[in-house]
Structures are given as structure tokens and as C-alpha cells.
Amino acid sequence: MDIKLDPSRDDLPLMANTSHILVKHYVLDLDVDFESQIIEGTIVLFFESGNKFKKQSSSTEETYPSESNEACKLRTPEPCHIPVTNTRTVSSKMGYNDFVICGKGEKDTSGKDGNHDNQEQASGISSSKYCCDTGNHGSEDFLLVLDCCDLSVLKVEEVDVAAVPGIEKFTRSPKLRNQIVRELVALPADRWREQLDYYARCSQAPGCGELLFDIDTWSLQIRKTGVQTATDFPHAIRIQYTTKPQGRSVTWTSDQSGRPCVYTMGSPINNRALFPCQEPPVAMSTWQATVRAAASFVVLMSGENSAKPTQLREGCSSWHYYVTMPMPASTFTIAVGSWTEVKPEICSSNDLATERSFSPFEADFRYVGGCGHMEYPCRFQNASATTQEIIPHRVFAPVCLKGACQETLLPLIPPCLSAAHSVLGTHPFSRLDVLLVPANFPSLGMASPHLVFLSQSTLTGMSQFCGTRLCHEIAHAWFGLAIGARDWTEEWLSEGFATHLEDVFWAKAQQQLAPHEAQEQRELRACLRWRRLQDEVRNSPEDMQVLRPNKEKTGHVSDSGSSVIKHGLNPDKVFMQVHYLKGYFLLRFLARRLGDDTYFSFLRKFVHTFHGQLILSQDFLQMLLESIPEERRLELSVENIFQDWLESSGIPQPLQRERLAGAECGLVRQVSAEVAKWVRVNRRPRKRKRKETEEVLEKLLPDQLVLLLEHLLEQRTMNPRTLQRLERTYHLSEQDAEVRHRWCELVVKHKYTEAYRNVERFLQEDQGLCNFQTSKSVRNKHRLCTQARGDT
């Protein structure tokens, strides 16, 4: 089943056979070992099987073959006779009490030696005659395929859920293990607490037979001898495994205070190097996890409860998190480090009242009708939660950044959350943790359910840079998480929406800002994005500029449910923002065409209709156009939008026409005037005539400074006197990271050695911005910055 990818395309394979069997719940029981830089333990998977999954996996009845499916049908594993010796059997360190869900007293905010390596797997699949059949239609054994890489799997076994004490209380078939699991996963949403408790008890049940398994580059394949269908395959299995220090799903590093930490960093391969799972987004599941680490560490996860540590033994603590909303496995996030919680110096009683949490347990949910998603305790059905403007939130950071977080970040969270609620309505998630991640984090931010990572770069300069980035990540709670893309190639459904909404949220969060000032700022940011999009289109491959690269095959998967993500492993994607920028301009175009009031009224309806579900581009566009009277559509159609915006490279023609016809906003004209002044300053001789008047320079906003420096970068030469005055006039070394980035480009271009210290600081402290910036030209500038660092 080992897929050989085309190195020129670097597509990412999703191997799991989700059309035949789906994971409904994961129970993780893990230990974090900083000395060995591994995470080890067990994961128990609870399944549901049935042909109904085929309808969820494809946008139409037609499917197309993928490499993974063909490979599975043709490959015959070689005999494996490696003796299974010296294998350490990890006994569970977790009892039932570790899984007790919070009761009334707790506020519920609802490769070591002996490991079998991927390359030399002692799997027990020893017959060369064995041929895998991932469906339930052949005469050979059914094969469960999970997405997996960079893991050492030690053991796979069926779990005897029938041995759980008291299991007969809620099942009609206490002796039929698969039937027990079927009834467990089918419990109604108002019994979520009981369901989690029985998942935990079942996960601790004894094994009742080891299963045969094999590993290749991208997958873990499991079978039970004599079981030929997904229906008869064990519906609860336990996998004992360890991660590897070099595994690509997590990063082992030190925080800004020099203390060790580990976190999931948004890898292109997602979480398959953290635990075996089903990666395709259609495999939406719940999970609960117990994680043990040294008592000095704090464990943060994307769970809906605000976990508190439980002391297990001297020097060791246990943390337990869970979620009740089914989500793709890629949204699972963990961060373990010596974080400190950043609290406001003064907390008003009004804030506490506003931020009161509503757990699924105490909420009065309406389970019949109203929502189109699978059943779960949904906040959109909770009248109290729908009016909650500010959800409970916490901030964690290394000790050395505590003061900066208190001053810059903490005051921004309530107004940004409130602004988001005023635009989109109900917060999909019940709480929010924000973590300031280590300097090597490869982006400015990353959103997960209940947990946001922010780069330290967001803390410098004025509040705008931090505020807009925070608003971007908050927007992902609705677009990217509560509403996800069914096909991961349609990234614009997440990033385009978040980019468009960050401006809207931030304008509302600045309560003192007049409407015309907010509009001016939005137009200024549109100008900056227009320049970046032009740069990106000039300097990136055409086939990577397309927002819907699979076109009419978008959302299609193979018969087994496997597929590939086009360009998913291409290293250039890290630097590209085309999905952010073209997606932003498409939504801006539609909002202007409809009018803001009409557009955002529609967007709230769209969120209410599709939260908790996966969508394709046509789902959004069809509902939007259906909400517009025919006489106002002005030749807009799904087909035209596909052709002009989503399925073509380059600049969309409607956007070209809009930019050519549009007049510059006042803030942009002000920058143009300042650029002209600086050009004149740069041209003056060292000795000026006495009658020459000094240029009067205006104070500029941070975004205006970015635009000013971008224009000055287009100048062929700038002398050291001009650069020195430029730095002193605007205090450039004290500005936010985006301004300092443009300043460093000027410094390097003109070899202004007196400011090389600024370049050194930028390269050390703003690595997230280095990776976030776009296009080949920008990457070349960073190469020059690296050369400049060598000169200092």
C-alpha cells in the first residue's frame, strides 16, 4: 500500500478507508518524555461501519480511482519473520478515576529499544499469499487502513468491551462486543457525559486477541484473521505506540525562557505522526485524552474543558481533556511546556458575569430540528450560549513574556470576541485558551477548537498587529473549524473567510473608531493585499495559484475513501498566501456587490445552516445566490465565479477591473505624498542651500508605514543619511513586526550596516513572520537577510 508520489507534485496521500468504516471516538492515554523526546502510550479507537459513508465521502455518485486504492489492491506484503522479542509491554498507568468527568465540584466549561520501526515491522502478517481487501465485498480478510507515519507501533489488539462492569445497564446485547460499541456511539447527545464515561471504561477493558498489522510510509494496516467485512471487524481496538523524536507532527524545542516544550505546529501531514488516525475530513469524531507529564509542566489541548492537573505521584501530574463536538482528527492540538497563566491585574465583576460559561451538562438544548449536523451538544441550540458575547478565556506564555501579554494581548481578547459575536452570532466553542508559542513557530498564528497559538511577533509595536491577527484566528472558530472544507484543496473556504473577517472584527473591536475611519483602514489593507497578490502571481507557479485545483472532481474520493491532496507536501506552499488573498478579494467583491448589510445578514444564516458540517465552494455560492433576488444577481452565477475566481490562475478579471476603476482612499493618498517627500530628501546633496525648506513629514499608521516602505523599496538607491532619518522619524526598530520586516529589507538592499542589528533581531525573534510572508521575491529577500546576518 506504499504510494510512490510524484516528486514534482508532492501530493499528500490520505490513506484511510473511510468509506467502509469510520472512527467515532478516540481515547488517548499518553506519557510525555522530554528526556527521550517521545510521546508514548495507547490509543483506543471506537468504530462505526456501513455503506452509508460513501454518500458522505463524495460530492456526487461518481468517484475516481486514486493511487492509494490501486496500490492496496495490487500489493502483496512480503513475509515477515522478525522474531517478536525484547518488546516492552506498556501496562496502562491510568485507572477509571483518571477519566471521571468533572462533577458538581468542578467548573465545566464545556523509538526505544525493542520498538518495531516503520521500516522493520514485526507485524505478524507472515503469509506472502495474503492480499488486502479494504472493502467488504471480497473473499479475503477486511483490512483497516489508518493514516500513520513516523510512529513505532508495538501492539494492536481487540478490546473486550463486554468485560466492562455494568455494561449490561445500557446495552441489549452485553455479550456482543460490536453491538455494544454500536449502541455506545449511538447514544443521544443529552447522554454525552454517560457516553464519555463508558468510552473511558471500555478503553481500560482487557484485550481479547492481538490483531495483525503492517506499516508502510503513510499508513498502518490492521486485519483480523477470518474477518472479511467491516461490519464484523472489531469495533474497538487498542494500539500501543510511541512517537519518534523526528516525527513531523510535533516540535520539540525550548521556549523563550529556555525551558523545554513540545507542541503540534500545524504540519502539512497533520497529526498522523502523533497518533494513528483517519485523516480525511469526513472522518469527524470526538475524543478524550489523559496526558501525563512532570509536575512542572502545563498541558494545553483543544478540549472543551479547562483541565486542571491531578497529582499522580511525586513529580508527575495528569491532565484530562475531552470534546463532544465531532471534528476531523487534524484539529487535535496539544502543547506541553512550562507555561504560566497570564491574568489581568484587576478583574471586574462585570467581566465575570459576561464571561459565564455554559457547559453541555447545564445547558437546555433543543435536540429536535434547528441544526443540519450530526447530533451533539450544540451551542447553537442553547439559548443562553447564543447571547454570550465573550466566552471564558485564558492566556498562557513563557514567564519572560508575561508582562508583554498583560499589556498588549490580554486587553484585546474581550473586544475581539465581542466583535466576532456581533458579526456572526453564537460562538461555536465554549471557551478559548491563547498560547504564546516558541520563537520557532512557523506562522503568526494557528487556530484549533478552544485553543489558539500566537507568535511572539504579534506582541511588538502598537495593538493593531496583535489585534488583527487575533481576530483572524478567532474567525477560524466559524470558518475552518465549525464549518470545514470537505476537500482540503479548497483552503480559501477557511483562509479567505478569516482574512476578510479579520478586518470586519477589528473595526468593530475598536469602539472609538468612526465608521468612515474604519472604512479607510479597510481600504488601506485592501491596497496592501492587492500589492501582495500581484507579487505572488508574478513569482509563483501558475498551477499553485488556483483555488479549486481539482475543478469538477473537487470532493471526490476513491471507492475506499482514500484520496490525495494536490500539492499538500510542496514546500513552497508554506510561503504562499494565494488562498488567503484571492479568497479575501472574492468575498470582498461579493460583499460590495450585495452591500455589507445584506451580505453579513446572509453570512449569519449560512453559519447557522452549516455549522458542524463540511462544505464545498458550491454550497456557499449556491446558498448566497439563492438569497439574492434574480434582478440583483447581475449575471452572477456559480459557474462564472468558478471560472473567474476559483479555477483559473493569475488575477481574476473582475478584480482587475475593480482595481483599475477604483480611486485611492485617503490613507493611501497620504502615503503617496510622503513617498514623494522622501524621494526628494534622498536626492538632496549633502550640503543644502540655506533657503531650502525642511520637509514636513506626517505621522503614519502602522499599515501606512508598511506601504511607505514598500514604495521606498522600489527606489534604486537610498543613501545612509536618508535611511538614518527614516529610522529616527518613525522609530522603525520599535514598530510591529510587519513594519520592521520591510525596514530590514531596505537595510539589506542598501547595505545600511548601522542597522544590521535590526536584521539580526528580526531573524531571531520573528521567525513566524519570515515563514508567513509570501512569494519567491520575498523568499529571496529573506535569503539576503541571512547574508546580512553573516556580515554582522
Query: For the residues shown, what is the average pLDDT?
Result: 84
Count, helices = 23
The CATH class of the largest domain is identified as Mainly Alpha
> What integer value in Å does the Rg equal?
27 Å
Major β-sheet annotation: 8 strands, mixed
Unreliably modeled segments: 1-5, 52-133, 349-369, 774-785
| Spatial arrangement of strands, main beta sheet | 6-5-9-3-2-12-15-14
Helix content: 25-40%
Portion in beta strands: 15-25%
Pfam family, one: Peptidase_M1
Keywords: Aminopeptidase, Hydrolase, Metal-binding, Metalloprotease, Protease, Zinc
Domain Peptidase M1 leukotriene A4 hydrolase/aminopeptidase C-terminal: 666-784
Protein name: Aminopeptidase O isoform X3
Short description:
The chain contains 23 helices and 24 strands. It has 792 residues and is α+β, with helices and mostly antiparallel strands.
Topology:
Elements: E1 12-14, E2 21-33, E3 38-49, H1 53-57, H2 67-74, E4 144-147, E5 151-159, H3 177-185, H4 192-203, E6 207-210, E7 212-215, E8 219-223, E9 236-243, E10 250-254, E11 260-264, E12 285-294, E13 298-301, E14 310-313, E15 316-327, E16 334-337, E17 340-342, H5 349-354, H6 383-386, E18 393-397, H7 402-409, H8 413-424, E19 432-436, E20 445-448, E21 451-454, H9 463-475, E22 483-485, H10 492-509, H11 515-538, E23 563-565, H12 578-594, H13 596-610, E24 613-615, H14 617-626, H15 638-646, H16 653-661, H17 666-683, H18 702-713, H19 720-730, H20 737-749, H21 756-765, H22 767-772, H23 775-791
Parallel strand pairs: 2-12, 18-19, 19-21, 22-24
Antiparallel strand pairs: 1-23, 2-3, 3-9, 4-8, 5-6, 5-9, 7-8, 10-11, 11-16, 12-15, 13-16, 14-15, 17-18, 20-21
Helix pairs in contact: 8-9, 8-10, 9-10, 10-11, 10-12, 11-12, 11-18, 12-13, 17-18, 18-20, 20-21, 20-23, 21-23
InterPro entries: Aminopeptidase_N-like_N_sf, AOPep, ARM-type_fold, M1_LTA-4_hydro/amino_C_sf, Peptidase_M1_C, Peptidase_M1_dom, Peptidase_M4/M1_CTD_sf
Pfam families: Leuk-A4-hydro_C, Peptidase_M1
Domain Peptidase M1 leukotriene A4 hydrolase/aminopeptidase C-terminal: 666-784
